[in-house]
Amino acid sequence: MKRTILYAYIALMVAVGLPFLANLGEGGAQAAPAGHNAVNPTPLPAVDEAPPAPSASPETETLSPAPAALSAAPFPAPAQLRVLLPDGTAAAMDTQDYLTGVVSAEMPPGFHDEALRAQAVAARTYALYCAAFSKHGEAQVCTDYRCCQAWQSDAQLREKWGEDYDANYEKIRSAVEDTYGEYLAAGGQPVFAAFHSSSASATENSAAVWSAVPYLVSVPSPETADDVPNYISTLRCSPIDFRDTVLSAHPGADFSGPEDQWIGELRRDESGRVASVVLGGEEVSGTELRSLFSLRSTAFELSYSSSAFTFTVTGFGHGVGMSQYGADKMARLGADYRQILAHYYPGTTLVK
Ligand SMILES: [Zn+2]
């Protein structure tokens, strides 16, 4: 039944002419960035301390100035990484080449240069985080966005960009070269630099999705429907589909009452996303509902009317760490990549 709903959702997205599940950028600013959207991400470090308070608004006038000089890195970024390729083989790859393929897959080249630089640093940081414990055995990082980070080969980029290849490649390669060797560190280690496509006013606390991490806390994010294609999405489903989908994960839920009474208390977390909803008498978490109904995020409204249940969803992705559209908006408001990174990963240090 979940599949039926997914197909209906895809049909809806196609009907309104907007990309859905287009996890690899399709070139141009209209392509939705993939976001670091792993459902079961890398194990996170245990963190005992309380998260710091969210940082200031991303409006440029409130940004603190970036430090003039980069701090010394605990260790230099390696010149090569061992990458698990889509064909299952592991290959040693020049780190800058690998990152060019990641940024090209994760962010449209039409984004602002400072956003592309922030993405390059976040991608380098995440790769080093994985490399520290060889996430894939022989390989340190893979090319699957659901697991590590999206990556596209040069051949894929040539096909995707066509006659714009040279200009797009130069723009993204410059972002990778301009930030050569730079990554975010905390406690002497590369951080878990999660990122996502777009947020609804604020990013999400890591604790709501995985576990608490002091630098992955909710901060304001400036993107709006004016900045993000398909920012608001809608999923409608019949009472039968709705009931069966919930029952597939919560067989004890009781839907014997009237349909308009199936939705109980809805709780929101600090970021405004859905923490949980009581359905048929059972509490279902927002992240579980996102998975069950293939929602684009957990920032949603759920309603019942005219014999249908409707999810109205804002943004795309888990919401943790840097928002890619938020980074682009910050850049267009005047922030540089260091300010963007300091905003979305508070408490981390940019090192080289
Ligand atoms: Zn992986």
What would you note in describing this structure?
The structure is a single chain. The protein has 352 residues and is an alpha+beta fold. The protein has two domains: 2-10 and 232-314, no CATH class; 32-41 and 55-224 and 319-351, no CATH class. Helix content is 30%, strand content 17%. It has helices at residues 2-15, 95-106, 113-131, 154-161, 165-178, 206-209, 239-249, 286-292, 324-332, 337-344, and strands at 80-84, 90-94, 141-142, 183-186, 189-190, 195-196, 232-237, 263-268, 274-279, 282-285, 300-305, 308-314, 322-323, 349-351. The chain has a three-stranded mixed beta sheet. It has a three-stranded antiparallel beta sheet with strand order 5-4-14. It has a three-stranded antiparallel beta sheet with strand order 7-12-11. It is elongated and about 60 Å long. The site of zinc ion (ZN) has 6 residues, from loops.
Distance between the termini: 50 Å
Largest sheet: 3 strands, mixed
Total individual domains: 2
Major sheet strand order:
2-1-3
Percent in strands: 15-25%
Helix vs. strand class: alpha+beta
Helical stretch tally: 10
